[in-house]
Structures are given as structure tokens and as C-alpha cells.
Amino acid sequence: MQINININDQAYQVDVAPRLNLADCIRHEIGLTGTHVACEHGVCGACTVLVNGEAVRSCLMLAVQANGQSVTTVEGLSNDEHLSALQASFRKYSALQCGFCTPGFITTAHALLTNEPNCDEHRVREVLSGNLCRCTGYVPIVQAVLDAREHYQKLGGK
Known about the structure:
By secondary structure, the chain is α+β, with helices and mostly antiparallel strands. The chain folds into two domains: 2-77, Beta-grasp domain (Ubiquitin-like (UB roll)); 85-155, [2Fe-2S]-binding domain (DNA polymerase, domain 1, Orthogonal Bundle), CATH 1.10.150. It contains five helices and five strands, in the order ββαβββαααα. The protein has helices at residues 22-30, 85-92, 102-115, 121-128, 139-155; strands spanning 2-7, 10-15, 48-51, 54-57, 70-72. The chain has a five-stranded mixed sheet with strand order 2-1-5-3-4, with helices on both faces. The chain is globular and about 45 Å long. The termini are far apart.
């Protein structure tokens, strides 16, 4: 099936099998490898991308469901010149070790902070509870997200 998809503000026309999931489409058909695939059951959050601004497990969504949609991957949240405020906070708080889960945490946190820039620690923990990390523990990740709130507050969220 042929789909038209906008990924990171770039239009793509891709031929995909009807059962291809969005994660594999992004990685193998488009060539963007920042979106990671781990559990393939939607449990770990490593494959989280934004579809029309909402955090979505791309391993659970078919590529054909993204036809005509706007998708943002972790690559689309910053540019090559500077880290985003959220990425800088992750670096500041050493909120990553192996980095495998980091793209999913960053896209999930970006969606949260965009929609709820004044969220408290409880809300951050609640939203990030769907993302798994086996290296860092969650304290530095939560600290990084809380630190980045000020940037999103200045932007007024959405």
C-alpha cells in the first residue's frame, strides 16, 4: 500500500506492507534510526513517537494508520546545532546511560511538557511510568524533565 506521511516536517511517499508497523517503517523505509524497538508489545516505550503531537507507541501502530498524519521522531525535536532544552536537561542530570530508552523518554516528556508545562513531579512520574529504563533508575530522568519545565512554560506549552 502506498502511504503519504509527514515525518519531522518532511513529506514521504512510501510503499508498505499492510501489516508493517510504524516503528519499522520509520527505521527501515525512511531510514531514521532514533526510534528504538525493544519489546514490540507497547510495554517499554522505547519506540514512542509523536503522531499529531500525541505520544504513540510506534510498534503498536500500523504504518498505514499514519497515512496523512504528521509524525515527529526524536530526531525532529532538535537540530544538529544545539541540544533541545529537554536533551540538555537529560545531559545535565546524567539521565541516560546506554541511551537505548532515551528517545522514548524524550518524546514522551516532550508531549507531556507541551500539553502540561506546569505539571508537578507526581504527574511526571505518572506519565513516564509507561517507559522502562534498565540502567539509570528514574530519579535523574524525572529531575531532567522537571528542570526542562521552565523552557516549556516560557513557550506557553502548545
